[in-house]
Specification:
Blueprint: E1 9-12, H1 18-29, E2 33-38, H2 42-54, E3 59-63, H3 69-83, E4 88-90
Parallel strand pairs: 1-2, 1-4, 2-3
Length: 95
């Protein structure tokens, strides 16, 4: 069985609730490593991270608002350092 996103690296904003959490799980199920940002709920971030890893994929969670310019720059540097960058960006966060 071929996975649609095998070997891809995705970053999803607002990845702990609703559509964002569902996308994190679907992308991981299809073979992507998934990083996501979230605003406040550490418990939900842990649930999302565990679901991604349970599917055999790498997960990274970042507690940062997409309106935080310096936080997003730091996040980007970390993703580049850890994964070499990303292939897929989903701007999902609700502001």
């Amino acid at each position: 069985m071929s996975l649609l996103l095998e070997g891809k690296r995705a970053f999803i904003t607002g990845g702990t609730r609703g559509i964002g959490a569902a996308l994190c799980e679907v992308f991981a199920r299809e073979g992507a490593d998934v990083a996501f940002s979230y605003g406040s709920r550490d418990d939900l971030a842990e649930v999302t991270r565990k679901k991604i890893e349970a599917l055999g994929r790498k997960a990274m969670a970042f507690k940062v608002s997409i309106t935080d310019r310096f936080g997003m720059k730091h996040l980007t540097r970390e993703l580049i350092h850890a994964w070499g960058g990303i292939d897929i960006l989903v701007n999902n966060a609700a502001i």
